[in-house]
Amino acid sequence: MAVMTYIESVRSTLAEEMRRDESIVLLGEDVGKKGGVFLATDGLYDEFGGDRVLDTPLSESMIVGVSIGAAVNGLRPVPEIQFADFIFPAFNQILSEAARMRFRSNGAYACPMTLRAPYGGGVHGALYHSQSVEAFFAHIPGLKIVIPSTPYDARGLLRAAIRDDDPVLFFEHKKMYRSVRGDVPDDDYTVPLGSARVTREGSDVTVIGYGLMAHYALEAAELLEGEGVSVEVVDLRTLRPLDGATLLESVTKTGKAVVVYEDNRFGGYGAEVSAILAEEAFDSLDGPIVRVTGPDVPGVPYNHVLEDWFMPSPDRIANAVRRLAAY
Amino acid sequence: MATTKTAPKADADLGAELGLSRDDLLEMYRLMAITRAVDERMWILNRAGKIPFVISGQGHEGAQVGLAFGLRKGHDWMVPYYRSVASLITFGMSPREIMLAQFARGVDPSSGGRQMPGHYGIVERNILSVSSPVATQILHATGIAWAAKLRKTEQVAITYLGEGSSNQGDFHEALNFAGVHALPCIYVVENNGYAISVPMSLQSAVEDIAIRAAGYNMPGVIVDGADVLACYRAGKEAIERARSGAGPTLIEAKVTRLTAHSSDDQHTKYRSAEELESEKSRDPLPLFRDQLRAAGLIDEQSEEKMVAESRKVVEDATDWAEAQAEPDPATAQRHVYSDSPPARMDDPLWEGARFMGDGGPWGALTGDGEPGGEG
Hints:
A: 327 residues; alpha/beta; five-stranded mixed beta sheet; 13 helices; globular; B: 2 domains; six-stranded parallel beta sheet; two-stranded antiparallel ribbon
């Protein structure tokens, strides 16, 4: 057991998986000698060499398209998109190719790759280094979407993703890279894709989040504890497949749900969560489903006052829970 | 950049300097003739209302057979596009397998009837599945070649596209990466002068796509796509180059499109009657036949025999494929994920299932509504 940061968990897990399986290759912009702009692949070039830790041209569609071809011909690529904001030149390769390869070939071809990308705001990254992009991809059958919130989950889910035979998008909140630390066991555990976790038990309101928002939900629960509001927190961990059972079990128990996501409100991933709760838990609900989200402006602004205005915070979550608890 | 042409030779030596035997030449002609017969049958089936859509490659067969004839079947990789009928048949796909895709039958090895005709792929033959967005496949071939290089498999990847697709960003991104790493990949642009209806003059600022190869530090070869043996030579050289580790090649085959873009296109709207008439002179099939005749490899009698054989193959493929069962809708949810059938939330037909009365995906959990029970 070791205590490590979130990014160290990602880095060391990549190294361990590469030692275990020679077919795993990393590719992306600056992932080699530099070790990635966040140092998520630091040291891997020295250990595994330039063939397996490849600095690519600045070509996102190439990074994904070449990974698809390499996956078809016996490699297990782990491509990195430097910032999730820059994934869109590769959108066609992800949507039309990686996600559909298995279905369109009637099961003949697969595309086992794990595409990693840092996402999220709160780091003065402005419009193009802060974005939450999960909603675009969670919409697509054939993809699995993972967003871990702890070093433990980062390791267990990254292992599960790399060993999975489907294309997995693995989003890491960049604000958590060095601000979140935690225990990471030495054994070869995995966290199954499609398993949410109740990170705090409570009885009055369920707060559902993922990534950085799973932490903010816990902080909000702490704030409310002294006020006599008992908050249960569900960390989804995997957005697709969604662990509907854990989600529904919690909301059926508390009867009230706050869905938190950092992305723009309209059509965000939490809108799907809300729709599922409305359809599946209607009889158990004692109040409206409430969303706490980023506002509907095209991006996170740079200035710190404006950025704070954009980002959902523990206080905003606590306010929503307070109002819902009193409903 | 080099332009390859078949050197004038005494007819009796046809193909000899390329290492092609008389049997090889006859086999190449047979592949072209069978492809043409299969292709023509597709259009008849469409006009007869038996299949809703056709997209094919009449006029491209010479380039396709010539360029693919030197590949190692079952070892190398082919990443085709929707006009690649002759390439695929040369690489081992059978007319029956081609026809299964036309009829979209359940046992269709390309997609089990999920994709439109023309979207071929057979895993057992190293033929990658085709999609409809153009140029995406160029990157897949590049990735296959990259894996071949890292894994030291000595495989060559060949991929095909139209000249229209050469204007997509994926073309540039793929060739650039292949050039950087000297990958064993062959990029074939089958330039028929039209991107559906848009002529070359509006597609490209340069007349020859092959000159773009200079930007990727690879040879750019222009070849007359109606000259089967010139295509074979270009393919052979590119395959040897790739196999030896010398890197990729861009080959531009100048071909003609003898049909409309697809069965949904009326090409007389943008091609004149004179053009269509004169393009027939670029049909590779009669041109190669004349070469074989002049070399004494075929005569009227053997030609008749070959035509009859082609007809028989097509009849068999058509009748057999048509007789195969339609896919079962109960299988339509398969192969979304490796562990399909998917969770019912991923079921596109799922709509408020618990309320609608079949329990919903988590009906049992929420207490009321076993599957099939009252919602």
